[in-house]
Amino acid sequence: MNDKSLQEADDARYGATTLIRRLVAEQGLTHWRKYLLAFILMAIAAGCTAFSAYLIGDVINQAYVNKNLPGIVFLGGMTVILFAAKGVATYGQSVVLSQIGNRIVADNQRAVFAKLLTEGLKFYSDRHSTEFIARLSTGAAAATQVINLLITAFGRDLLSLVGLITVMVVQDPLMSFFSFVVAPPAFLVLRKLIRRVYKVARTQFQGSTLVLETLQETLQGIRIVKAFTLEGIMRERFDRQVAAVEHEANKMARLQSRASPLMETLGGCAIAIAITYGGYRVIDTGATPGQFFSFITAFLLAYEPAKRLARLNIELNSGLVGVRILFEVIDSPPSEALDLDKPALQIKSARLEFNDVQFGYRGEQAVLRGMSFVAEPGKLTALVGPSGGGKSTIFNLIMRFYEPDRGKVIIDEQDIAQVSRKSLREHIAYVGQDVFLFRGTIRENIAFGKPGASEDEIVAAAKAAYAHDFIQSFPRGYDTPVGEHGLQLSGGQRQRVAIARALIRNAPIILLDEATAALDSESELQVREAMDRLCQGRTTLAIAHRLHTVAHADRIFVVEQGCVVESGRHDDLLRQEGRYALFCRLQLQQEEPRAAVAELAPP
Ligand SMILES: Nc1ncnc2c1ncn2[C@@H]1O[C@H](COP(=O)(O)OP(=O)(O)O)[C@@H](O)[C@H]1O
Ligand SMILES: [Mg+2]
């Protein structure tokens, strides 16, 4: 299918009527009892309005024709009751509608969030994170907006209109007919506007997403922005995107209001016809003035709901853009569907093997080419090599963030593709280079490694990670807030909290991705001691940038361009005088030029 027909198929799937039908069926009908209540309340309010228009006729006749004061007082009392009843009904109706609306928003937010959690990493690396924020907020709110629009249109406006038109027809059928001749031209013009509204609303949404993206990036990268004095560039970007949204918003406002001049003029014509004809009836044919006033009152009251109904389609269409955005998220097949039906991974000794694995993130471009190696149970296996060689990709495949194109990843004779992701990941503790702490306390962050962990377990893990002492030194101890807000820990401290989080998991397989690369030498020493404890007796795979941190590894694999090019122990590899020896020398030169020169010099 080409782009155009895809677009058309999409448009058919998310056409206005389909969207509305689905919205009502999936999100509206579950609340039908409350909607019915709202509907009844709206009917009461509409009845009150129509009846008060009818009463005006009596008032006029009692005052000007019969000159009956008690009758007028009675009618005045009736009017108060009618308006009070209308007020109460309107109150009840708007509270009920808001309650259902808020529930629908909440349900949709839950649905979208749950959906996002079923997506794989590829899904996220293809998109900007703010796109989800925009979809979550716009989509969830739009569903409510559209449903309420429909309910109020049919409940409040249509019922009022029917009531008022009834009054008009009762008072004067012929005059009613004349007043309605203006309706057909109004509808014809409105229909034309609708298509354009839909288009503009979509552009507007995309524009607002861009604004959010820039905002979020600037906030997250505020250090870089300031350090590189990028304020001007960021402001320009932001200005441009905000201006584009402003432009679209103005376009929308013009479109939405374009109906007004026409509607008002036509309304004026209808009133003029009614007044002229009504006046003629009273003056020339002796009709009662009450009838005439009642008619005019009903007509004027009918004017607002009629106008709203005429505009309904326009507002509906701009709301439907949001609904479509919502359904697009909910409908897209999950990229990492739950596979709980697969058997759980059975760990015996935790031997991990890559068997001729081929993998690329983007189709043809292979990142791993025939990768084969074994991480022996209970041993420390190191992966080293130039950056971009594919080391982190190996971890991505072990955790099944991605699936190999060819070959297998095997743990204890089980192909990990054949076991459930949940069971696989439960047996792995991962510590990466960028430590991510969640908003919350240090205690909560450690406990994320093992939900439901006891206080003793948390403290034990922190002690083993050499984190206990510095945590205790904070005034609030384990209750110290971390994450985006609150106290920011140093790099080494964060790393040790992350190690505690991994330790408490008590997993048989440990993955360390350059876990000490961001640390200074002093904290590195402490972190390394913590890590040595973490790894004891477990199958550990460590990616290391600084080679001396893995010099004691049981086996080292040198990974270059997606293949293992050398393997062995540190000393063996040095003796081989191959790639590893070369890296070692280069690194030594960088870190301690003098020592390197001394070592390289012939004895
Ligand atoms: N999410 C991704 N999408 C596309 N390409 C990626 C992704 N992650 C890494 N790559 C590419 O895969 C190659 C190997 O990356 P990586 O495994 O991170 O290397 P290393 O960890 O050895 O430095 C690099 O060329 C990199 O550009
Ligand atoms: Mg890496």
Structure write-up:
It is a single chain. With 603 residues, the protein is of the alpha/beta class. It folds into 2 domains: 3-331, ABC transporter type 1, transmembrane domain (ABC transporter transmembrane region fold, Up-down Bundle), CATH 1.20.1560; 352-600, P-loop containing nucleotide triphosphate hydrolases (Rossmann fold, 3-Layer(aba) Sandwich). The chain has 21 helices and 12 strands. The chain has helices spanning 3-13, 16-28, 32-66, 69-117, 121-125, 129-171, 173-179, 183-220, 222-227, 231-285, 289-331, 391-398, 421-426, 442-447, 455-464, 468-473, 491-503, 521-535, 570-576, 579-591, 593-600, and strands at residues 352-359, 368-375, 380-384, 406-411, 414-415, 428-431, 440-441, 481-482, 509-513, 539-543, 555-560, 563-568. The strands form 3 sheets. It has a 6-stranded mixed β-sheet with strand order 6-9-10-3-11-12, sandwiched between helices. It has a 4-stranded antiparallel β-sheet with strand order 2-1-4-5, covered by helices on one side. A two-stranded antiparallel ribbon has the order 7-8. β1 and β2 (368-375) form a beta hairpin. α3 runs antiparallel to α11, α6 (129-171) runs antiparallel to α7 and α10 (231-285) packs antiparallel against α11 (289-331). It is elongated. Residues 599-603 have low confidence and may be disordered.
For this structure, the CATH topology of the largest domain is: ABC transporter transmembrane region fold
User: Class of the largest domain, according to the CATH hierarchy?
Assistant: Mainly Alpha
Number of strands: 12
What share of the residues lie within helices?
Answer: 55-70%
Tally of distinct domains: 2
User: Biggest sheet: strands, sense, closure?
Assistant: 6 strands, mixed
Q: Could you give the distance between the termini?
A: 72 Å
What overall form do the CA principal axes indicate? elongated
Radius of gyration: 36 Å
* Molecules bound to protein: adenosine-5'-diphosphate, magnesium ion
Strand arrangement within the widest β-sheet reads 6-9-10-3-11-12
Reported CATH architecture of the largest domain: Up-down Bundle
Structural class: alpha/beta
Overall mean pLDDT: 85
Name of the CATH superfamily of the largest domain:
ABC transporter type 1, transmembrane domain
How many distinct helices? 21
Low-pLDDT stretches are: 599-603
Beta-strand percent range: 5-15%
